Amino acid sequence: MYGKYSTFRYPRFFTTGEKLSSAGRFSFSSRLMGEPCKRAWPSLLQDQRKRVAVQVAQYCEVLSKQTSDALESETGRGIRDQYLLPDRPRSAPSWRPILFPRLSKQAAEEYLSPMNAGEEFHFYHVDLSPTNIMALDDGSVMGILDWESAGFYPRVWIGINPG
């Protein structure tokens, strides 16, 4: 989905699934050039850091213009979120996001009350951190990793999500 609406690179996924152990989900994807910004950042010059920030902001703007009438993943299923779920099952590891069911606009408004869900849901990466942004030595962003929790969220949640 995100590839249809953007000009940036992301890994091509070959397969994904659930591990049989408690280790969680797994994915096999293509490799992106560059290194994570977390590692590249100290060696980047001020102009290069600004280029990274501008490119990532542009990507986020492009993604957020894609909307849905439901709180859902980009495939139309439930989202994976560890903060929206009210009661985490004791058996679930704290690091593993819980599959949250797809909610229509009305159901999301009721569930998220008193937070204003807004008129539509916007596409959001959820885990856009320096470890998931791949950059080259010149500050060019080569792509973004870790899309498994991406989906359509209330605009207000994008600004306050603690993840």
Write the layout of secondary structure elements.
Layout: E1 13-18, E2 25-29, E3 35-36, H1 37-40, H2 46-64, E4 67-68, E5 70-73, E6 79-81, E7 98-100, E8 103-104, H3 105-112, E9 121-124, E10 133-135, E11 141-144, E12 151-154, H4 155-160
Antiparallel strand pairs: 1-2, 3-10, 4-9, 5-8, 5-12, 6-7, 9-12, 10-11
Please tell me about this protein's structure:
- The chain is of the alpha+beta class.
- The protein has one domain (33-85, 99-160).
- Helices cover 23% and strands 26% of the residues.
- The strands form four sheets. A five-stranded antiparallel beta sheet has the order 4-9-12-5-8. Strands 3-10-11 form a three-stranded antiparallel beta sheet. The chain has a two-stranded antiparallel ribbon with strand order 1-2.
- A hairpin with a 6-residue loop joins strand 1 (13-18) and strand 2 (25-29).
- It is globular.
- Mean pLDDT is 78; it is low at 1-6 and 18-24.
